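User: Design a sequence. Structure:
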């Protein structure tokens, strides 16, 4: 394959991937607890242009770029007051730990938009919108209230729930020695890598955990739109390079025939 054709094609693929990443960031600009995900480019391998094989030369040719990895920007987003009883925002470093009751899988999130839900065991659990239970400082699900027992056939009485402010001391805030290996899953959830170390839990208190508030996304819309325009231009130029290379190849083949 012609080198210029290949370089243009690789560049188009890389910038298409970059556009997808930017579009996802823009789509989540209003998602609570979402962290911006910038992409990192890496150059493909260079090769020497030798007139004679194995001879030293100052002429080299690249082979385009590719998206090496997608990072996560963990800088804190702005506070948004909601007034909802079981909304929380971590002021500073740390994550909420949430557990899937079906698989027991634990993931970590900065999205503190929680609610209560009555389960078949008669307990009201603090959980996320998709049913994952929030863990306390001992990695146990937080129970906000329990349905009182009734006589057979009776109607359960009302249960007084623990106030959101009173749960601050129970909610576990987990930190890690490193966040470089954190893998983003399902939008605002993260799974730590082995190199991130073991989670260190600290009890929430009034200085680091705000009640009735949520953390906004840290996506800068202006910057992302600028990046999108830049990526679109690069994508167009890469495709133009492919088209020009194809036209040159067609012309050369026509001269040979």
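Assistant: Done.
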């Amino acid at each position: 394959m012609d080198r210029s054709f290949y370089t243009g094609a690789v560049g188009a693929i890389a910038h298409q991937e970059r556009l997808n990443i930017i579009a996802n960031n823009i789509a989540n600009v209003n998602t609570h607890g979402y962290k911006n995900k910038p992409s990192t480019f890496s150059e493909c391998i260079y090769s020497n242009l030798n007139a004679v094989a194995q001879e030293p030369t100052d002429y080299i040719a690249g082979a385009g770029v590719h998206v090496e990895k997608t990072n996560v920007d963990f800088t804190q987003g702005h506070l948004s007051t909601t007034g909802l009883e079981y909304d929380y925002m971590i002021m500073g470093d740390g994550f909420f730990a949430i557990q899937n009751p079906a698989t027991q899988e634990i993931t970590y999130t900065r999205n503190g938009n929680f609610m209560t839900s009555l389960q078949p065991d008669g307990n009201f659990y603090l959980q996320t919108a998709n049913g994952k239970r929030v863990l306390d400082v001992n990695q146990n699900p937080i129970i906000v209230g329990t349905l009182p027992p009734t006589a057979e056939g009776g109607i359960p009485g009302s249960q007084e729930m623990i106030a959101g402010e009173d749960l601050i001391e129970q909610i576990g805030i987990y930190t890690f020695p490193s966040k470089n290996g954190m893998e983003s899953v399902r939008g605002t959830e993260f799974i730590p890598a082995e190199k991130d170390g073991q989670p260190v839990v600290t009890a929430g208190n009034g200085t680091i955990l705000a009640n009735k508030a949520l953390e906004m996304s840290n996506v800068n819309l202006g910057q992302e739109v600028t990046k999108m325009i830049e990526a679109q231009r690069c994508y167009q130029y890469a495709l133009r390079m492919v088209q020009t290379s194809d036209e040159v190849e067609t012309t050369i083949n026509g001269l040979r025939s």
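The mean pLDDT is 83. The chain has two domains: 1-73+219-255, 78-216.
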